[in-house]
Amino acid sequence: MTTKTWSLFWGSNFVRAPLQNGVGRYVQQLQRITFKFCKTHGGSKGMREYIEKELIGFARENPGVVVYVKPRRHRSPCLKAEYLNGGEDYISTHVNTCEDIVKWVEYLRGRSGYPIERLRKYHHTDYPSIQGPWTPWTHRHPSINFKEYPCVSCHLIIVMVDDKLL
Amino acid sequence: MSTCQAVMSGWNYDAELYAFGKRLQEEFDGDALREALTDASYITKEMQRQQELGVSDPGLAMSNNKELAAKGETLITQYCFGYLRAALPLLPEEGISALVDYLLSEDVMSAVGYGIGLRDLILCEEHPPSSSTMARCFHAVVGALSVSSPALQCQAFVRDFVVAQLVGKDIDAIWKVENPMGVLADILHQSGQGEPEPRLIFQSGQETLQAVYHVGVYSDKKFMGSGYGETVETAVKEAAHDVLRKLFQITDSANPLPFGKDADVLPLKTEASVSLDNWSIDKTKNIISC
Protein backbone atom coordinates (compact mmCIF):
# COMPACT_ATOMS: atom_id res chain seq x y z
CA MET A 1 0.00 0.00 0.00
CA THR A 2 1.41 3.36 -0.94
CA THR A 3 1.63 6.18 1.59
CA LYS A 4 -1.01 8.08 -0.33
CA THR A 5 -3.54 5.26 -0.18
CA TRP A 6 -2.77 4.69 3.47
CA SER A 7 -3.33 8.38 4.28
CA LEU A 8 -6.55 8.42 2.28
CA PHE A 9 -8.10 5.69 4.37
CA TRP A 10 -6.37 5.97 7.73
CA GLY A 11 -5.43 9.62 7.88
CA SER A 12 -2.36 11.04 9.50
CA ASN A 13 -1.72 13.06 12.60
CA PHE A 14 0.86 14.57 14.87
CA VAL A 15 1.92 13.08 18.17
CA ARG A 16 -0.71 14.05 20.74
CA ALA A 17 -1.74 13.23 24.28
CA PRO A 18 -5.32 13.26 25.57
CA LEU A 19 -6.07 16.02 28.10
CA GLN A 20 -2.46 17.24 28.34
CA ASN A 21 -1.65 13.87 29.89
CA GLY A 22 1.75 13.88 31.55
CA VAL A 23 2.01 17.67 31.96
CA GLY A 24 0.81 17.42 35.54
CA ARG A 25 0.65 13.70 36.19
CA TYR A 26 0.33 10.60 34.08
CA VAL A 27 -3.08 8.97 33.95
CA GLN A 28 -3.30 5.51 32.50
CA GLN A 29 -5.74 5.75 29.61
CA LEU A 30 -6.91 2.14 29.62
CA GLN A 31 -10.18 2.25 31.52
CA ARG A 32 -11.45 -1.30 31.37
CA ILE A 33 -10.55 -4.54 29.70
CA THR A 34 -12.80 -7.52 29.10
CA PHE A 35 -11.49 -11.04 28.60
CA LYS A 36 -14.04 -13.08 26.66
CA PHE A 37 -13.45 -16.82 26.35
CA CYS A 38 -15.03 -20.28 26.33
CA LYS A 39 -14.58 -22.65 29.25
CA THR A 40 -14.31 -25.80 27.16
CA HIS A 41 -13.26 -24.99 23.61
CA GLY A 42 -9.68 -25.57 22.53
CA GLY A 43 -9.38 -22.14 20.91
CA SER A 44 -9.56 -20.53 24.35
CA LYS A 45 -6.85 -22.68 25.91
CA GLY A 46 -4.31 -19.87 25.97
CA MET A 47 -6.83 -17.42 27.38
CA ARG A 48 -7.81 -19.83 30.17
CA GLU A 49 -4.17 -20.30 31.00
CA TYR A 50 -3.69 -16.52 31.09
CA ILE A 51 -6.62 -16.12 33.44
CA GLU A 52 -5.25 -18.82 35.74
CA LYS A 53 -1.66 -17.61 35.79
CA GLU A 54 -1.37 -13.95 34.90
CA LEU A 55 -4.65 -12.13 35.39
CA ILE A 56 -4.45 -11.57 39.16
CA GLY A 57 -0.96 -10.13 38.79
CA PHE A 58 -2.12 -7.81 35.98
CA ALA A 59 -5.07 -6.56 38.02
CA ARG A 60 -2.85 -5.98 41.05
CA GLU A 61 -0.28 -4.00 39.09
CA ASN A 62 -2.91 -1.89 37.34
CA PRO A 63 -5.47 -0.82 39.94
CA GLY A 64 -6.79 1.85 37.57
CA VAL A 65 -8.01 -0.72 35.06
CA VAL A 66 -11.29 -2.51 35.69
CA VAL A 67 -10.93 -6.12 34.61
CA TYR A 68 -13.95 -8.12 33.50
CA VAL A 69 -13.96 -11.80 32.65
CA LYS A 70 -16.79 -13.05 30.48
CA PRO A 71 -17.19 -16.76 29.66
CA ARG A 72 -19.18 -17.47 26.50
CA ARG A 73 -19.94 -20.98 25.38
CA HIS A 74 -18.28 -22.16 22.14
CA ARG A 75 -17.19 -18.77 20.94
CA SER A 76 -13.67 -17.72 20.18
CA PRO A 77 -11.80 -15.67 22.76
CA CYS A 78 -11.06 -11.95 22.44
CA LEU A 79 -9.90 -8.90 24.32
CA LYS A 80 -11.99 -5.73 24.44
CA ALA A 81 -10.29 -2.59 25.72
CA GLU A 82 -11.98 0.73 26.47
CA TYR A 83 -10.13 3.98 26.92
CA LEU A 84 -10.82 7.21 28.76
CA ASN A 85 -11.14 9.25 25.59
CA GLY A 86 -13.92 6.98 24.32
CA GLY A 87 -11.67 4.89 22.12
CA GLU A 88 -12.19 1.13 21.95
CA ASP A 89 -10.05 -1.69 20.74
CA TYR A 90 -10.84 -5.32 20.00
CA ILE A 91 -8.25 -8.05 19.60
CA SER A 92 -9.12 -11.58 18.58
CA THR A 93 -7.02 -14.07 20.54
CA HIS A 94 -8.28 -17.24 18.88
CA VAL A 95 -5.79 -20.13 19.43
CA ASN A 96 -3.26 -17.68 20.89
CA THR A 97 -0.94 -18.97 23.55
CA CYS A 98 -0.71 -17.49 27.02
CA GLU A 99 2.53 -15.69 26.05
CA ASP A 100 0.85 -14.09 23.06
CA ILE A 101 -1.97 -12.83 25.22
CA VAL A 102 0.50 -11.35 27.72
CA LYS A 103 1.94 -9.34 24.84
CA TRP A 104 -1.45 -8.25 23.51
CA VAL A 105 -2.55 -7.12 26.96
CA GLU A 106 0.67 -5.16 27.33
CA TYR A 107 -0.02 -3.54 23.95
CA LEU A 108 -3.52 -2.51 25.01
CA ARG A 109 -2.34 -1.30 28.41
CA GLY A 110 0.11 1.25 27.08
CA ARG A 111 -2.05 2.82 24.38
CA SER A 112 -3.67 6.25 24.49
CA GLY A 113 -6.94 5.16 22.95
CA TYR A 114 -6.52 7.21 19.80
CA PRO A 115 -6.81 5.19 16.60
CA ILE A 116 -3.59 4.00 15.00
CA GLU A 117 -2.57 6.63 12.49
CA ARG A 118 0.44 7.49 10.43
CA LEU A 119 2.49 10.01 12.37
CA ARG A 120 3.69 12.91 10.30
CA LYS A 121 6.49 13.62 12.75
CA TYR A 122 7.75 11.96 15.88
CA HIS A 123 7.71 15.23 17.79
CA HIS A 124 5.26 18.06 18.23
CA THR A 125 5.42 21.60 19.57
CA ASP A 126 2.76 24.20 20.14
CA TYR A 127 5.34 26.91 19.47
CA PRO A 128 7.03 26.09 16.15
CA SER A 129 9.03 29.31 16.34
CA ILE A 130 9.62 31.52 19.35
CA GLN A 131 11.09 34.16 17.05
CA GLY A 132 7.84 34.73 15.17
CA PRO A 133 6.79 33.91 11.64
CA TRP A 134 8.95 34.50 8.61
CA THR A 135 8.54 37.85 6.88
CA PRO A 136 10.19 39.28 3.79
CA TRP A 137 12.58 41.12 6.11
CA THR A 138 13.60 38.28 8.37
CA HIS A 139 17.07 37.48 7.03
CA ARG A 140 18.42 40.81 5.88
CA HIS A 141 22.00 41.56 5.12
CA PRO A 142 23.91 42.40 8.32
CA SER A 143 25.57 45.41 6.68
CA ILE A 144 22.36 47.35 7.36
CA ASN A 145 23.19 47.25 11.07
CA PHE A 146 26.09 49.64 10.53
CA LYS A 147 24.19 52.26 8.58
CA GLU A 148 23.92 55.76 9.97
CA TYR A 149 20.34 57.00 9.80
CA PRO A 150 18.93 59.09 8.23
CA CYS A 151 20.86 58.36 5.10
CA VAL A 152 20.08 59.47 1.59
CA SER A 153 21.42 56.47 -0.26
CA CYS A 154 19.96 53.97 2.23
CA HIS A 155 16.91 53.21 0.18
CA LEU A 156 19.10 52.47 -2.80
CA ILE A 157 21.39 50.18 -0.79
CA ILE A 158 18.50 48.24 0.70
CA VAL A 159 17.05 47.68 -2.73
CA MET A 160 20.40 46.48 -4.00
CA VAL A 161 20.87 44.14 -1.04
CA ASP A 162 17.38 42.77 -1.58
CA ASP A 163 18.16 42.07 -5.19
CA LYS A 164 21.21 40.13 -4.17
CA LEU A 165 19.32 38.08 -1.64
CA LEU A 166 16.20 37.32 -3.63
CA MET B 1 -30.47 0.78 41.41
CA SER B 2 -27.98 2.78 39.45
CA THR B 3 -28.71 3.37 35.81
CA CYS B 4 -25.59 5.11 34.63
CA GLN B 5 -23.82 3.88 31.55
CA ALA B 6 -21.43 1.74 33.58
CA VAL B 7 -24.26 -0.30 35.07
CA MET B 8 -26.45 -0.41 31.99
CA SER B 9 -23.66 -2.12 30.08
CA GLY B 10 -23.23 -4.65 32.87
CA TRP B 11 -20.25 -3.07 34.60
CA ASN B 12 -19.61 -3.23 38.30
CA TYR B 13 -20.15 0.25 39.71
CA ASP B 14 -18.10 -0.34 42.88
CA ALA B 15 -15.13 -1.61 40.90
CA GLU B 16 -15.42 1.33 38.49
CA LEU B 17 -15.39 3.81 41.37
CA TYR B 18 -12.38 2.12 42.96
CA ALA B 19 -10.48 2.21 39.68
CA PHE B 20 -11.48 5.84 39.14
CA GLY B 21 -9.64 6.95 42.27
CA LYS B 22 -6.65 4.71 41.66
CA ARG B 23 -6.31 5.87 38.07
CA LEU B 24 -6.09 9.51 39.14
CA GLN B 25 -3.72 8.54 41.97
CA GLU B 26 -6.07 9.98 44.56
CA GLU B 27 -7.74 8.53 47.63
CA PHE B 28 -11.44 9.35 47.51
CA ASP B 29 -13.86 8.91 50.36
CA GLY B 30 -16.35 6.40 48.95
CA ASP B 31 -19.54 8.13 50.11
CA ALA B 32 -18.36 11.58 49.06
CA LEU B 33 -17.45 10.29 45.60
CA ARG B 34 -20.83 8.62 45.19
CA GLU B 35 -22.54 11.84 46.20
CA ALA B 36 -20.39 13.81 43.77
CA LEU B 37 -21.40 11.56 40.89
CA THR B 38 -25.14 11.74 41.64
CA ASP B 39 -26.95 14.43 39.70
CA ALA B 40 -30.22 15.90 41.00
CA SER B 41 -32.05 14.80 37.84
CA TYR B 42 -31.22 11.17 38.61
CA ILE B 43 -32.85 11.21 42.04
CA THR B 44 -36.01 12.83 40.69
CA LYS B 45 -36.25 10.30 37.91
CA GLU B 46 -35.61 7.36 40.23
CA MET B 47 -38.30 8.54 42.68
CA GLN B 48 -40.76 8.85 39.85
CA ARG B 49 -39.90 5.42 38.50
CA GLN B 50 -40.33 3.76 41.86
CA GLN B 51 -43.65 5.48 42.48
CA GLU B 52 -44.86 4.31 39.09
CA LEU B 53 -43.91 0.77 40.10
CA GLY B 54 -46.10 1.13 43.19
CA VAL B 55 -43.43 1.65 45.83
CA SER B 56 -45.17 4.07 48.18
CA ASP B 57 -42.03 4.99 50.10
CA PRO B 58 -38.96 4.81 47.91
CA GLY B 59 -36.08 4.51 50.34
CA LEU B 60 -33.71 6.71 48.41
CA ALA B 61 -31.27 8.04 50.94
CA MET B 62 -29.21 9.77 48.31
CA SER B 63 -28.08 13.34 48.18
CA ASN B 64 -27.22 15.18 44.99
CA ASN B 65 -23.94 16.83 44.16
CA LYS B 66 -25.05 20.46 44.37
CA GLU B 67 -23.25 21.24 47.65
CA LEU B 68 -20.06 19.49 46.67
CA ALA B 69 -20.12 21.20 43.28
CA ALA B 70 -20.36 24.63 44.90
CA LYS B 71 -17.50 23.72 47.20
CA GLY B 72 -15.39 22.40 44.36
CA GLU B 73 -16.02 25.45 42.20
CA THR B 74 -14.85 27.78 44.97
CA LEU B 75 -11.75 25.67 45.44
CA ILE B 76 -10.88 25.64 41.76
CA THR B 77 -11.44 29.40 41.46
CA GLN B 78 -9.31 30.15 44.51
CA TYR B 79 -6.46 27.93 43.47
CA CYS B 80 -6.44 29.11 39.84
CA PHE B 81 -6.32 32.74 40.95
CA GLY B 82 -3.52 32.08 43.44
CA TYR B 83 -1.52 29.99 41.02
CA LEU B 84 -1.83 32.27 38.00
CA ARG B 85 -1.05 35.41 39.97
CA ALA B 86 2.13 33.76 41.22
CA ALA B 87 3.09 32.16 37.89
CA LEU B 88 2.38 35.25 35.76
CA PRO B 89 3.34 38.06 38.13
CA LEU B 90 3.31 40.80 35.50
CA LEU B 91 -0.07 39.99 33.99
CA PRO B 92 -2.73 42.51 35.09
CA GLU B 93 -5.65 41.32 37.21
CA GLU B 94 -8.00 41.58 34.21
CA GLY B 95 -5.89 39.02 32.35
CA ILE B 96 -5.80 36.70 35.34
CA SER B 97 -9.61 36.83 35.66
CA ALA B 98 -10.01 36.16 31.93
CA LEU B 99 -7.79 33.08 32.23
CA VAL B 100 -9.70 31.82 35.28
CA ASP B 101 -13.02 32.41 33.49
CA TYR B 102 -11.70 30.41 30.56
CA LEU B 103 -10.61 27.53 32.81
CA LEU B 104 -13.95 27.53 34.63
CA SER B 105 -15.96 27.72 31.41
CA GLU B 106 -18.33 24.86 30.74
CA ASP B 107 -16.36 23.72 27.71
CA VAL B 108 -13.07 23.27 29.55
CA MET B 109 -14.68 21.79 32.68
CA SER B 110 -16.72 19.26 30.74
CA ALA B 111 -13.72 18.34 28.59
CA VAL B 112 -11.70 17.62 31.73
CA GLY B 113 -14.59 15.63 33.20
CA TYR B 114 -14.86 13.62 30.00
CA GLY B 115 -11.12 13.08 29.90
CA ILE B 116 -10.90 11.57 33.36
CA GLY B 117 -13.72 9.15 32.59
CA LEU B 118 -16.76 10.69 34.28
CA ARG B 119 -18.95 10.00 31.27
CA ASP B 120 -19.69 6.42 32.28
CA LEU B 121 -19.91 7.08 36.01
CA ILE B 122 -22.34 9.99 36.33
CA LEU B 123 -25.80 9.07 37.56
CA CYS B 124 -28.10 11.41 35.65
CA GLU B 125 -31.22 11.44 33.57
CA GLU B 126 -29.74 11.79 30.10
CA HIS B 127 -26.99 9.84 28.45
CA PRO B 128 -24.45 10.88 27.42
CA PRO B 129 -24.43 13.55 30.14
CA SER B 130 -24.82 17.12 28.88
CA SER B 131 -21.81 19.39 29.20
CA SER B 132 -23.39 21.39 32.04
CA THR B 133 -24.00 18.18 34.02
CA MET B 134 -20.48 17.08 33.30
CA ALA B 135 -18.99 20.41 34.41
CA ARG B 136 -21.03 20.39 37.63
CA CYS B 137 -20.00 16.83 38.27
CA PHE B 138 -16.33 17.65 37.84
CA HIS B 139 -16.67 20.50 40.33
CA ALA B 140 -18.29 18.04 42.71
CA VAL B 141 -15.45 15.55 42.25
CA VAL B 142 -13.00 18.26 43.31
CA GLY B 143 -15.31 19.01 46.26
CA ALA B 144 -15.32 15.32 47.19
CA LEU B 145 -11.54 15.24 46.99
CA SER B 146 -11.29 18.19 49.36
CA VAL B 147 -13.42 16.24 51.83
CA SER B 148 -11.27 13.14 51.54
CA SER B 149 -7.72 14.51 51.15
CA PRO B 150 -5.50 17.24 52.57
CA ALA B 151 -5.72 20.66 50.94
CA LEU B 152 -2.31 20.40 49.25
CA GLN B 153 -3.24 17.25 47.43
CA CYS B 154 -6.51 18.77 46.28
CA GLN B 155 -4.59 21.75 44.93
CA ALA B 156 -2.21 19.46 43.08
CA PHE B 157 -5.23 17.75 41.51
CA VAL B 158 -6.65 21.08 40.32
CA ARG B 159 -3.27 22.07 38.96
CA ASP B 160 -2.65 18.83 37.11
CA PHE B 161 -6.07 18.58 35.53
CA VAL B 162 -7.48 22.11 35.30
CA VAL B 163 -4.53 24.51 35.06
CA ALA B 164 -2.74 22.09 32.73
CA GLN B 165 -5.37 22.95 30.11
CA LEU B 166 -3.61 26.29 29.63
CA VAL B 167 -0.50 24.56 28.29
CA GLY B 168 -0.15 25.23 24.59
CA LYS B 169 -2.85 27.91 24.62
CA ASP B 170 -2.13 31.47 23.59
CA ILE B 171 -2.83 33.66 26.61
CA ASP B 172 -3.13 36.62 24.29
CA ALA B 173 -5.98 34.90 22.44
CA ILE B 174 -7.88 34.06 25.64
CA TRP B 175 -7.53 37.57 27.06
CA LYS B 176 -8.17 39.97 24.20
CA VAL B 177 -7.15 43.58 24.70
CA GLU B 178 -9.60 45.59 22.59
CA ASN B 179 -7.65 48.80 22.17
CA PRO B 180 -3.98 47.92 22.60
CA MET B 181 -2.63 51.32 21.51
CA GLY B 182 -4.84 53.15 24.03
CA VAL B 183 -3.85 50.75 26.80
CA LEU B 184 -0.17 51.13 25.92
CA ALA B 185 -0.48 54.92 25.93
CA ASP B 186 -2.06 54.76 29.41
CA ILE B 187 0.68 52.50 30.71
CA LEU B 188 3.45 54.69 29.34
CA HIS B 189 1.75 57.75 30.77
CA GLN B 190 1.56 56.07 34.19
CA SER B 191 5.23 55.17 33.94
CA GLY B 192 6.20 58.74 33.07
CA GLN B 193 7.46 57.87 29.61
CA GLY B 194 6.75 59.50 26.29
CA GLU B 195 3.75 58.72 24.09
CA PRO B 196 3.99 55.55 22.01
CA GLU B 197 4.97 56.43 18.48
CA PRO B 198 4.25 53.92 15.70
CA ARG B 199 6.67 54.15 12.81
CA LEU B 200 6.80 52.27 9.56
CA ILE B 201 9.96 50.16 9.46
CA PHE B 202 9.46 48.28 6.20
CA GLN B 203 6.74 47.87 3.63
CA SER B 204 6.32 45.63 0.64
CA GLY B 205 3.81 44.98 -2.10
CA GLN B 206 1.66 48.08 -1.57
CA GLU B 207 -1.61 48.11 -3.50
CA THR B 208 -1.36 44.40 -4.14
CA LEU B 209 -3.18 41.52 -2.46
CA GLN B 210 -0.02 40.56 -0.62
CA ALA B 211 0.81 43.93 0.87
CA VAL B 212 2.71 43.73 4.14
CA TYR B 213 3.77 46.45 6.54
CA HIS B 214 6.21 46.22 9.41
CA VAL B 215 5.53 48.78 12.11
CA GLY B 216 7.64 49.48 15.17
CA VAL B 217 6.45 51.24 18.31
CA TYR B 218 8.86 53.70 19.92
CA SER B 219 8.68 55.68 23.12
CA ASP B 220 11.21 58.44 23.77
CA LYS B 221 13.00 57.18 20.64
CA LYS B 222 13.44 53.77 22.26
CA PHE B 223 12.28 50.67 20.44
CA MET B 224 9.49 48.87 22.35
CA GLY B 225 8.22 46.27 19.92
CA SER B 226 7.03 45.63 16.38
CA GLY B 227 4.29 43.95 14.44
CA TYR B 228 3.20 43.01 10.93
CA GLY B 229 -0.04 43.51 9.06
CA GLU B 230 -1.62 43.68 5.65
CA THR B 231 -2.64 47.28 6.30
CA VAL B 232 -0.89 49.93 8.34
CA GLU B 233 -3.74 49.97 10.90
CA THR B 234 -3.52 46.24 11.61
CA ALA B 235 0.25 46.45 11.75
CA VAL B 236 0.05 49.26 14.33
CA LYS B 237 -2.41 47.22 16.38
CA GLU B 238 -0.19 44.16 16.18
CA ALA B 239 2.84 46.20 17.17
CA ALA B 240 1.03 47.59 20.22
CA HIS B 241 -0.02 44.02 21.09
CA ASP B 242 3.58 42.95 20.81
CA VAL B 243 4.71 45.67 23.23
CA LEU B 244 2.00 44.65 25.71
CA ARG B 245 3.01 40.99 25.44
CA LYS B 246 6.61 41.93 26.16
CA LEU B 247 5.63 44.10 29.13
CA PHE B 248 3.35 41.42 30.62
CA GLN B 249 5.88 38.66 29.80
CA ILE B 250 3.43 36.47 27.94
CA THR B 251 5.42 36.17 24.73
CA ASP B 252 5.86 32.82 23.03
CA SER B 253 9.39 32.73 24.36
CA ALA B 254 8.29 33.28 27.99
CA ASN B 255 8.95 30.60 30.58
CA PRO B 256 6.42 27.79 30.62
CA LEU B 257 3.94 27.52 33.49
CA PRO B 258 5.42 25.63 36.43
CA PHE B 259 4.15 22.09 37.09
CA GLY B 260 5.27 19.26 39.31
CA LYS B 261 8.08 20.08 41.74
CA ASP B 262 8.35 23.70 40.56
CA ALA B 263 4.69 24.25 41.28
CA ASP B 264 4.89 22.63 44.72
CA VAL B 265 7.25 25.35 45.92
CA LEU B 266 5.35 28.16 44.21
CA PRO B 267 3.89 30.46 46.89
CA LEU B 268 0.25 31.19 46.03
CA LYS B 269 -0.71 34.85 45.92
CA THR B 270 -3.98 35.82 47.57
CA GLU B 271 -3.82 39.56 46.97
CA ALA B 272 -4.89 40.77 43.54
CA SER B 273 -2.33 41.65 40.91
CA VAL B 274 -2.00 45.23 39.66
CA SER B 275 -5.05 46.13 37.59
CA LEU B 276 -4.70 47.41 34.06
CA ASP B 277 -5.61 50.99 35.00
CA ASN B 278 -2.79 51.20 37.54
CA TRP B 279 -0.25 49.11 35.70
CA SER B 280 3.06 50.89 35.19
CA ILE B 281 6.57 49.79 34.34
CA ASP B 282 7.99 51.18 37.62
CA LYS B 283 5.46 49.39 39.77
CA THR B 284 6.35 46.02 38.38
CA LYS B 285 10.09 46.62 38.31
CA ASN B 286 10.81 44.82 41.56
CA ILE B 287 8.74 41.77 40.73
CA ILE B 288 11.01 38.85 40.03
CA SER B 289 9.45 36.28 37.79
CA CYS B 290 10.86 32.84 38.28
TrEMBL record, chain A:
Entry keyword set: Mitochondrion, Ribonucleoprotein, Ribosomal protein
Keyword S-adenosyl-L-methionine: no
Domain Ribosomal protein/NADH dehydrogenase, residue spans: 39-112
Gene Ontology terms: cellular component: mitochondrial large ribosomal subunit
Cited InterPro entries: Ribosomal_mL43, Ribosomal_mL43/mS25/NADH_DH, Thioredoxin-like_sf
PANTHER family reported in the protein's UniProt record: 39S RIBOSOMAL PROTEIN L43, LARGE RIBOSOMAL SUBUNIT PROTEIN ML43
Protein name: Large ribosomal subunit protein mL43
Source organism per UniProt: Portunus trituberculatus
Gene (name only): MRPL43
Automatic annotation (TrEMBL), chain B:
A GO term from the CC aspect: ribosome
Cell compartment(s), UniProt: Mitochondrion
Gene Ontology MF, one: ribonuclease III activity
Keyword Cell membrane included in the entry's annotation: no
Membrane spanning stretches: none
Superkingdom classification of source: Eukaryota
InterPro entries associated with the record: dsRBD_dom (IPR014720), Ribosomal_mL44_DSRM_metazoa (IPR044444), RM44_endonuclase (IPR055189), RNase_III_sf (IPR036389)
One family name in Pfam for this protein: DSRM_MRPL44
Domain spans labelled DRBM: 179-249
Entry keyword set: Mitochondrion, Ribonucleoprotein, Ribosomal protein, RNA-binding, Transit peptide
GO biological process: RNA processing
Similarity comment: Belongs to the ribonuclease III family. Mitochondrion-specific ribosomal protein mL44 subfamily.
Protein name, per record: Large ribosomal subunit protein mL44
UniProt organism field: Portunus trituberculatus (Swimming crab)
Lineage: Eukaryota, Metazoa, Ecdysozoa, Arthropoda, Crustacea
